[in-house]
Amino acid sequence: MKTLSFAAIVAASLVVPAVAQDKTGWPESFTVGTGSQGGTYFGYGSGWAAIAAEDLGVSGGAEVTGGPMQNMALVHTGEVAFGMTTMGPAAESLAGTNPIAPGLQMTNACAMFPMYQTPFSVTTLASSGIKSVADIPAGAKIGFGPAGSTSDTYFPRMMETLGVDFERRNGGWSDLGGQLQDGLLDVIAFAAGVPVPAVSQLEVQTEINIIEFTEEEQAKIAEAFPVSPFEISADAYTTLTAPARSVSMWNFAIANCDLPETFVYGVVNAVMSDNERMVTAHRAARSSLPEFWDRNTVMKWHPGAARWFKENAGADIAADMIHGG
Fold first, then answer.
1. Phi/psi of residue 114, each to 5°?
2. Where in the chain is CATH 3.40.190.10?
3. What is the CATH architecture of 27-115+251-321?
4. For 122-156, how does the pLDDT look when each residue is reduced to its tens digit (9 = 90+)?
5. pLDDT above 50 for 3
6. 118-249: CATH, from 3.40.190.10, 3.30.420.40, 3.40.630.30, 3.40.50.2300
7. To 5 degrees, how large is the angle CA 62–CA 64–CA 65?
8. 41-64 pLDDT, tens digit each
9. C-alpha to C-alpha distance for 59 and 55, rounded to whole angstroms
10. Where is the secretion signal located (predicted)?
11. At a CB cut-off of 8 Å and minimum separation 6, what does 176 contact?
12. Three-state SS string across 243-286, please?
């Protein structure tokens, strides 16, 4: 019993220096802007908010929001300290084309740490005969997901970039899956974590094709949009016999750029230093690893976050990519 108590004391003494630092300007509490309740953003955001609050001894929690675009606006204005966004909405917000506040360049939202990837994938019925993007007939009815979603915002543009002529359809993923099966849609273009439940359900009920991009198509999309090459693993769906070539858009946690450097450093340390704990909070955190710091090619880094990645991940972040640098 004495040994256990001593070990606990030693453990505590090792933890204290990480948080016993200059707390000048630290907020008494913080809020993380996430997304709709029940979605990945809300679950993931609630998880890291709790971890950061516990480690830093500051009250914190998640708030339901409209997702990536709104989070950029909320963090930029300081209405919430932290948020989560994807590279696409971040780029649009910095350029002043965020539909929430057209013309406002949201440059006071800074990158904090990498979260996970949102892959873009294409699904059709096997009976359609569509086996590639080039096979999609002119005027095809394509379901792009809920209106205003990341999928609906970017996938239509990607299809246009690849020369596809289509009629745009919106709806929830399950609803679109039913429409595809009923012959009301020709293609569904998903931007969601894999396996997408609607696709898994479809392949149980009927034969489908999961369309991969060619290397040329992948490169063309990656050049035009803030996405990275991605492979959908063969074990994601029973339909696949080999990995399917795709692209993905990274999700990043963001911070108001005016937050104290030591505070943001502490939050990043809490989240990035123990991936197992983050994965326990949400499975999507399996990609929340320090080595993926370089997936941010859009936003300037918060100085506290940049310092953490330089010190702990060997990050080579240029001075002009750090806020105030």
1. -75, 140
2. 27-115+251-321, 118-249
3. 3-Layer(aba) Sandwich (3.40)
4. 999 999 999 999 999 999 999 998 776 788 889 99
5. no
6. 3.40.190.10
7. 120
8. 888 999 999 999 999 999 999 999
9. 10
10. 1-20
11. 143, 145, 169, 185, 188, 198
12. CEEEEEEEEEEEEECCCCHHHHHHHHHHHHCCHHHHHHHCHHHH
Q: What's the rounded Cα separation, in Å, for the pair 31 and 60? A: 6
Q: Please, which pLDDT band fits residue 21 given cuts at 50, 70 and 90? A: low
Which tokens in the block code for residue 232?
């959908």
The pTM of the full predicted model, rounded to 2 decimals, is 0.75
Lookup: tokens for 294: 């370089």
In 3D, which of 264, 244, 260 has the Cα closest to residue 305?
Answer: 264
Tally of CA atoms within 13 A in the half-sphere of 71 that contains its CB: 32
Closest CA to 149 of 184, 190, 180, 116: 190
